[in-house]
Amino acid sequence: MLLDRVTLPPLVSLFSSTSSDPLVLATLGTAPGVTESFISLLEDSGDAKETLVAWQPAGTSNDLATRVASLAKQHQTNEHEHSADLKDQVLHLQAPDCRTTYARWGSLRKGKWKDDGLGVELPVVHLQVKDLGQAMFLDVAVVDDRGELLVVRASTWQTQARLHPALADEPPILHLPLRFPSASTSSSGTTPLLTSWTTISLPLARLLGSLSPPRRYKATTGVQVHATCRLRRVWFSEEEMTSEVDEAQMRRGALPELALFKAVT
């Protein structure tokens, strides 16, 4: 695995949409022949400065117009009345079928993770995600101390936690419900959210320990985020807490998280 022999700091960044080369470690996938399946980097506020990074080449100008129109509709339809967009660059993943369009880091497959896996041993993964009101899910592949692979999945359509047994070519899946907060579910019930961005934290070691029989977490081999959503950051930490990145510190060059490729070197 990429980092199985590397001593890691207590905080490791896998992806940051505001870095100079945010997708250097990522593998992107889109649906063949589907114009509205694409991934782009853009400014969250107003969908400005868009750069397509994965898409099916448009066959006609009408195809391109359809894609642009679908992006505009997506933003207008899912804009939160009381929430502010970010002025930062973010990663936008969109598709009619969320299974087809994804950004992946490392490996989630049985026969590949030993060679292509991340090998991050920090037990908590955090993702900054924007809810666009569409079906989306994310997968995190982990390996236990016996070398057995398991995928932790969180999706917007799942209603309760369920463990799916392994298949011939697929590892077992711990499927968790994913619910984004809204103004109606805020602590007071009336206070609107300031932003539709959410930090999702998965305590991987604790989740594996809750299984029957319990498993001991060893490392994360892969992370895969599926459409339709926006992604700002993915990082790992030692503690079960959301370690938000201080933007002012980053501009001063005192970034409290270390980029993954930096840790390798």
UniProtKB/TrEMBL annotation:
Domain of life of the source: Eukaryota
Domain CFA20: 82-171, 192-247
InterPro entries registered for this protein in UniProt: CFA20/CFAP20DC (IPR040441), CFA20_dom (IPR007714)
Protein name: CFA20 domain-containing protein
Species in which this protein is naturally found: Rhodotorula taiwanensis
